Amino acid sequence: MKKFINDPADVVAQSLAGLAAAHPELRVDTEEQYIVRADAPRAGKVGLVSGGGSGHEPLHGGFVGPGMLDAAVPGEVFTSPVPDQILAATKAVDGGAGVVHVVKNYTGDVMNFQLAAELAADEGISVETVLVDDDVAVEDSTWTAGRRGTGATLLVEKIAGARAEEGGKLAEVAAIGREVNAASGSFAYALTSGTTPAAGRPGFELPADEIEAGVGIHGEPGRRREKLRPAKELVRSALDAILDAKTFTGPVLLLVNGLGGTPLIELYLIYGEASAYLEERGVAIARQLVGNYVTSLDMAGMSLTLCQATDEMIRLWDAPVRTPGLRWGA
Amino acid sequence: MDVTLAREWMRAAAGAIAADADLLTRLDAAIGDGDHGVNLNRGFTAVVAALEKTPPETVADVLIKAGTTLMSRVGGASGPIYGSALRAAGKALPPAAEVQPADLVAALHAGLEAVRKLGGAAPGDKTMVDAYGPAADAFEQAVAGGADLAGAAGAAARAAAAGAEATVPLQARKGRASYLGERSIGHQDPGATSTALIFQALADVS
């Protein structure tokens, strides 16, 4: 393993300290391990808190700021945060109007956020939870852990964050978040596995000409192994999987997301193929975003996310946002 | 079981998890994200420290304190699951410095019930329930047959180990391994394996 680290055990804490030093407009509690807007709590504003394992940066800490999250709670690498941390962040952003938890659908995240929401309720804070489960590679079933939360998390955090920023009530902010999730689908390919600092070796090994289809964002193998094909074909397969799983008539938000180890030159190539294929399928793109946003450490790979957008979603997507990872109009 | 033995159990569990952290991590890398050993090791190290800092006076409080510590230090799914198992087991015990094997039967089942309630896992889902369930049953049967703590704990440890091995051919239906679908078949479940280590630790100190 070659990484710019000092000790695998200290990666999360030391990265958090660096984030704090680089972004004085944020407040970082290194003791309880959460990142919060410097002006939190804001009286009367619904607080938006998200979190999960570290290793997905800029998700979630890079999305804290006006127009998006009020706080982010990073756990250890690929490990959900603990209830104490989530509770501390929830209290830090509660301005009396309630708090929305944006939770990616993983067993650990769901359990820890649920425990934290119960503790917050004991302290008189109303919490609504928005569960993100957009990954169509996983079959949805009540008998399993269900679909994973991946790229759509960014869309939910941006759009619900804008709704909270303009004064939306707790139920309204949660409702638009759930609406975005329900309207979204994602699919990912990996060319290589990522390496967690703790494990020190890749999660899986791939021969030079093989890829993993239907991967998540935690270095686990995907649904199946395939031969590497030209990008055009992979993009079409990924979009077919998404278009088969949910109805997309357009206009859509399209996120072309890198998993951490794929350069922008490839992501833009992918965007070109994706936009051409969507045009062929008669699906208009309303807004698009290209970059490494919901990552899996140093995994080379990409995910595509589509969201069937309403006018209201597009209006909120366009609203100003000022965070380390996403910034426009402000 | 007296309060000293309860503390020794937790210390032995911590030692076993530290010793086998690499194995747990390897098993987890195959069908999860490869951090089960690291996370549990961090949690049980904190448990040992917490029990030494302010030693509880009842067996129940040892288990409750251990559970609370795991819940607030481990994260992931294993933190809440192991945490609530130990807390539920502790709460099911009489508040005494020494408890009887029959008390532990009830405590083990209360812990199992908490795990199943929180995680929603049934036997055969390729989770720690597949080790814990047989262990609790074996402990109960041994006690019913007149075994002492050492005998019952030994039976539970053997059942847990067999249960963990029996997860190999199963397809995961819960947790991160479930995302792999059929590809989860052929691998031993890391959660069931760590559960077997904890029952073996009980047998070792009894």
Automatic annotation (TrEMBL), chain A:
* Keyword terms: Kinase, Transferase
| UniProt-recorded Gene Ontology molecular function terms | kinase activity
Q: Which residues form the DhaK domain?
A: 7-328
What InterPro entries does this protein's entry cite?
DhaK_1 (IPR012736), DhaK_dom (IPR004006), Dihydroxyacetone_Kinase (IPR050861)
Write down the PANTHER family for this protein, in alphabetical order.
TRIOKINASE/FMN CYCLASE (PTHR28629), TRIOKINASE_FMN CYCLASE (PTHR28629:SF4)
Q: What is this protein called?
A: Dihydroxyacetone kinase subunit DhaK
The gene name on file is dhaK
Automatic annotation (TrEMBL), chain B:
Give a GO molecular function annotation for the protein. kinase activity
Quote the InterPro entries the UniProt record gives: DhaK_L_YcgS, DhaL_dom, DhaL_dom_sf, Dihydroxyacetone_Kinase
Pfam families, per the entry: Dak2
Q: Which UniProt keywords apply?
A: Kinase, Transferase
PROSITE patterns (UniProt xref): DHAL
SUPFAM superfamilies for the chain = DhaL-like
Say if the entry is tagged with keyword Transferase. Answer: yes
Q: Which Gene3D superfamilies match?
A: 1.25.40.340
Query: Which ranges carry the DhaL domain?
Result: 4-204
* Xref: PANTHER family: TRIOKINASE/FMN CYCLASE (PTHR28629), TRIOKINASE_FMN CYCLASE (PTHR28629:SF4)
Query: What protein name applies here?
Result: Dihydroxyacetone kinase subunit L
Which organism was this protein described from? Actinoplanes palleronii
Provide the taxonomic classification.
Answer: Bacteria, Bacillati, Actinomycetota, Actinomycetes, Micromonosporales
